[in-house]
Request: fold
Amino acid sequence: MHLSKRALFAGLGYEPHPGQLLVHRSKAKRRVLVAGTRTGKSLCAAMEAIAAAMEPRKRSMGWVVAPTLDLSEKVYREVVIVAAEHLKHRIVELKQHDKKLVLRNLGGGLSEIRAKTADNPVSLLGEGLDWLIVDEAARLKPAIWNSFLSQRLIDKDGWALFISTPRGRGWLWDLWRRGQDGKDPDYESWQMPSWTNPYLKRELIEAERERLPAAVFAQELAAEFIEGAGQVFRYVRDAATGALREPVPGEKYFAGLDLAKVNDFSVLTIVNRRLEVVHVDRFHRLDWGLQVARIKAATDRYNRAWTLVDSTGAGEPVYEALCAAGVRAEPYAFTTSSKAALVNNLSLRFEKREIVLPRAELCPTLIDELEAFEYTVTDSGTVRTGAPSGQHDDHVSSLGLAAWAVQSAPDFTLYEIDMRTGAIEAVP
Reply:
């Protein structure tokens, strides 16, 4: 028995528009759909998943993977809705908690569809796949595809569909270009601006053009690969040429301390006056007393580094405890405006090539967070900055505080008395 996608889609009440139809007709093993917002790429991918699951086989397995669980649920939710409305008689098992759907396919076999998140790569190991859909692929770390996902398709000669809004010229851009030159029959790719969706009113798209920054419109609606678009901090990799260094006697150091909230990490970043990052410490779920001792030990070692502390919420008593312990600290309360000031200052430092970061292999999470930190556009048109959904920005906040400390630290000198000799010496 041969599956006819056209007949299946007609039975499901789905009429793909011309852009979606290009994807459905493809036989390439690697398919890359780069699309603007509201083009119907999630529905297109969901229908590809349904078609794959309905193919007459004894057994098949397919995954929908995205950088975070909520993103992976977008396509998976579309699949479940279609199955519940039109294929209810074929549902063998539906486990919402496990994000698992099993259907009886047209050959009487079982087809399993699961939603997976890339924020726990270990969960991506093991199983061989017949097909794979990667949503918001531009946000996925290339190592996830190279080390965890591509191997799942080898033993069954499976196919992969990548759907995403573009985000700079990263690994997805490389895959997309590979499908454009026509030299590799295993790759096919498409670029689908928002206006390719015939159901979207063109005047509304033009209204978005007027209210959004040009780079935002080009990326989010025109589906263009803009170098550095979406990223708040540019030249991060260019800055990652340094090393973590031991303290130098007599040198002044400055620290930024971002304190953990419920699920976040506490991060301490120490820089010298030249904005070279010399020390980074990241810890999680430590008793506040242990955190204070750990921070004091580090700042004392770096010549009693002047420390700017996130004093928001739970950070206020920690700041007081640090001061009581003898740490040279000042509070910095996070508000919308004060956080924006930190981000803008840090971004300017990167633009001026003033910051030196440790090499990527020394502090991979620092580099990852800086590169992932992005702007987003709200429904009201407000441009905001922050970490992508499900990710952290503790390193960004900590480095931002350290960079701010360099320019805001008071110019004062402390003195210590040697109790044996009575000599008075300046503290660096």
